[in-house]
Amino acid sequence: MQLSDHLTGCRVMISAGASGIGLAIARAFHQQGASVQVCDISSEALEAARSELPGAGLFRADAASEADVEAWFAHALAQLGGLDVLVNNAGIAGPTSALQDLDVAEWDRTMAVNVRSQFLCVRRAVEPLRQSSRATIINISSVAGRLGYPMRTPYAASKWAVIGLTQSLAIELGEHDITVNAILPGIVESERVNQVVGAKARLRGIPDADMRAEVLQHVALHRTVPMADIASTALFLASSPGRSITGQNMNICAGVQTLR
């Protein structure tokens, strides 16, 4: 049976869904016949995504802002008439620095976007999800949510927090038949990863290519992960075959053994 048999008409909200992994997930649901509403902090990204997501709802919002999240949910739920799937994708890389050199504002912003945003969205989504027969929450964490990540402490700490949020919500919301899982991408082929690799290379004083090779040396498959693989996992978790999966950390990481 095709996933589209399960996902046609599915009502989906995706935070930070206008670029990167979020856009890949939004595109995948859209192609399966789901009704998709996305928010993003970037007006430029939203405009660029318009041609890729015809008919989808595109709303400018900072997912770390309570007022913005409230406005997005009011708009999106009015358009969808309910909710079946929430994908908490909003996240930033945060600073690359030794802990003692970190700016407090950078720490706070990383935590706000990567953790507070998920809290705000889930809090607003629970009631409409309780009315769905296929209620699904998918939180995007990272392989940095199970491994230490030197020089990237705010990012790692925030992604470990997402795992705690996911595990707790899976138990708390299980009585309402709402599944809650986390996807832990590895080193995804993306512009963000290129920027992180570049920042670490500058700290080490080595070429970007050498830094990239060193990073991939600790990946079992010795390659990055295509964004389409993350999107396919999200589709599966939201489909009928995924209805008995909850409280799980889905490592889509090509076998990352350590982060450097």
Automatic annotation (TrEMBL):
Domain of life of the native organism: Bacteria
The keyword Oxidoreductase belongs to this UniProt entry's keyword annotation: yes
GO molecular function (one): oxidoreductase activity, acting on the CH-OH group of donors, NAD or NADP as acceptor
Coiled coil start-end: none
Keywords: Oxidoreductase
Keyword presence, Isomerase: no
Similarity remark: Belongs to the short-chain dehydrogenases/reductases (SDR) family.
Protein name: 3-oxoacyl-[acyl-carrier-protein] reductase
